[in-house]
């Protein structure tokens, strides 16, 4: 494959052992010939131009960026100069790199307290709550979890949620195709009454009253907005149900979230069996492995508004995709990257992992859709970690055939492998990353690494000016607090599905207690308000949607709003006579 002329000197450091003067001269001359021959072999023909993108790496670069020189790799940057030698071996940290020493001191605890009444005692007749979820698999998962909580707040019977079949992925799967319905209903029987469909009235299926509620709606919000409609209409469907329940609720409702997420919501047997088979095949190749949620698909990159060094071609291609979201803010790539809101490139992820101490021989499972730039973009990561796997390389087309046409089922397979991995690395703060991070904390604080993108940005920008040892040391320093250690996040901070602190307990002598004090309601409310008033953040959204999910629009007409006012009058009367 053709390459381009680069007029830059190499700065690699070569170590020559001490020899006699004559021998030294002979050795030096021979070494010079080798270097010149090697340089000529690598140099492209004359006449090539320089790539676009300034000092950043061009995504669609045709030539591999690595020179191999065992036991180290001499890494070249975008202009062809040698940056530093990347050692092939791993860190001296050993087991501490793969697992936290403190993990065994904590455990998941989501049982209800005695104050949490049984569903049979609190569920009111003629109150049926229906939910229409939104987005991809993991965004819909959050909707399902919160639907159970909403039904409990309203003392209503929950109807099995409807999954989103109209988003970007056009997945026709329904709830029963992905999740075990019987397990879902039976596991939560003491918490919320759940049925498959609304019972007929006079031989006809009741048509639900549809409404949309604001994001992060509190328990009081549900009582004021949804309960009046339930009292009058009896069957209510909440549409576009994603992140429509407050991040901070009282402890028993938070524990209910955990019971739904970590115990009741199980994948179907075909998905579980296929997922376990992929895990077993990874284990057969290596005793332990890293799972990397790469999240470097074209749609994701376009949605982020970030720039990855691909010049005008990248700007044009990703810009065209970004137009699908009509109301997204104008992108400011430099600001997004400075604020740590851009995913790392595959190359940057690989360098981060090697700098942390993971050796070249480590096996990596990559959970990803179509990577922007294809194999050319993945080449640097594969050079750093040659033992590179995915569900497509581990299983045959025949084995994957039942799942291939359904994006949510394919995502479920990645979810299982990532969950079972020894180390999970997430290259974003999206829905799958949050859900898995919380799950791994709940089930023993398994090592979960999230790049400190805001701090790493400047380090990657200046990496050519330092040795590998310096670079590695800086990465390890910057990643403290981003390695999935217990109590990494301050009490009261963080999104609950990622940091389920109300469901994490610390082991103590003779008894178990919470791993941290729970913030008072006043503090929680203040932090909730600050979160709601914060700057719009694309990471809170799901890029499969055609419009931003942060807009609290409603599909209600003016007449519906008048009717809602009547419902509130009914609710006021109801409260007076309770």
From TrEMBL:
Q: Which residues cross the membrane?
A: 14-38
Q: Indicate, by first and last residue, each region the UniProt record lists as having compositional bias (Basic residues).
A: 508-519
Q: Name one GO molecular function term.
A: glycosyltransferase activity
Biased composition, Basic and acidic residues: where in the chain? 525-542
Known CDD domains for this protein?
Answer: O-FucT_plant (cd11299)
Listed under GO biological process in this entry are: fucose metabolic process
Instruction: State the residue spans of region: Disordered.
Output: 507-566
Superkingdom of origin: Eukaryota
One Pfam short name = O-FucT
According to its UniProt record, which protein family does this protein belong to?
Belongs to the glycosyltransferase GT106 family.
Protein name (database record): O-fucosyltransferase family protein
User: What is the scientific name of the source organism?
Assistant: Oryza nivara (Indian wild rice)
